[in-house]
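User: My notes are a mess, but here's the protein and nicotinamide-adenine-dinucleotide's SMILES. Can you give me a structure?
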Amino acid sequence: MGSDVSGRILHVELKERTYPIVIGSGTLAEVGAYIAPMIDGGRCFVMTDGNVAERHLRLLIAKLDAAGVRAVPFIVRAGEQSKSLAVVERALGAFLAEKPDRRMPVIALGGGVVGDLAGFVASVLLRGVPFFQIPTTLLSQVDSSVGGKTGVNTVQGKNLVGTFYQPKCVLIDVDVLATLPEREMRAGYAEVVKYGMIASADFFAWLQDNGRDVCAADAEKCVHAVATSCGIKARIVAEDEKETGVRAHLNFGHTFAHAYEAICGYDGTLLHGEAVAFGMVMAADLSLRLGVAKDVKVKRDLKEHLASCGLPTDPSLYAKDVNPRTVLDYMGHDKKVQGDRLRFVLLKNIGTAAMRYVDDRDALLDLISSYSS
Ligand SMILES: NC(=O)c1ccc[n+]([C@@H]2O[C@H](COP(=O)([O-])OP(=O)(O)OC[C@H]3O[C@@H](n4cnc5c(N)ncnc54)[C@H](O)[C@@H]3O)[C@@H](O)[C@H]2O)c1
Ligand SMILES: [Zn+2]
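Assistant: No problem, the inputs look usable. Here's the predicted complex:
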């Protein structure tokens, strides 16, 4: 790992499927030490997208080669559209043409799009081949690469087809964040803030002091932020791999976020992390309105911090003059609905989440209206 920044190794504890998350600066160049020894048979597939390929693929291939592993790359077009069954079919065709055996792994080098797609492909290719994640966006480093959810989108909606499939190892190099566009970096940072809000007041306090450096891709601060976030996610996933309980806390802010993302149409106008930023403010607001939280700091400190990092704290920039009923209807389309009641992750305090079912539509409409001018 980079000489002046110390790295960390965490584990996602899932019995015989326990796997390491290696986090550091310069770790991509050390793929020969971390991943190559876990590859049997001397070959692997590497899935990536055009943007990442241009910047980081050559180094990965060279380092694998030096470790005696030949990489077969498959490059998809950057963007959410690549998370489709059509791309899965093309990838499977290209991979099967190499006559792989079950030992030949798939490595995902990219953001959440590549990770979700490659994980899905790995889980169905020959009924499952080994899978490795090298996430290259802040969002994928702190969220999508850990936890084993894979998937693609269909006309019926996002992520409705997929598998739970754990990687053998997640290798995180914070140095690759230096090439990530600032807006993507900030969007990923919203998920980092989420971990503080749902699970650790201390971490949130650290972010209040250091968040701007994280957003500016300071390597040492990124290692701490990514490692703490992954540690929280790993603990939650180990407790509840298939999301029957506490894993749902990771959806803090997401019921609101998903509605506005759907309204905006996933065309890049509103990034997921931006929607999560103001979605968390709305969820904190709801926590206060329902009396789950008593201290106004829950909303005030969150809002101030997000704003200081250049993240949106209300949806007005993206979804102006949207009828609050439309927002509520879209919230009903979310997977987190039971009967007529919507399920929300709320906060008791900064660092403590609680699940609540809400059936008071008027209270929800009132809240949404206050964000709809
Ligand atoms: N599996 C899960 O648990 C989970 C969790 C959260 C999100 N997701 C999924 O993740 C996806 C979003 O992931 P994302 O935000 O990483 O988006 P993304 O993969 O589309 O990446 C964002 C953009 O950054 C570019 N990029 C990536 N790394 C780069 C780098 N180092 N330098 C320069 N450019 C780079 C990409 O080409 C792309 O244009 C969504 O499909 C979402 O559903 C999955
Ligand atoms: Zn999210």
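The first strand starts at residue 8 and ends at 12.
User: Great, I'll file this with my notes.
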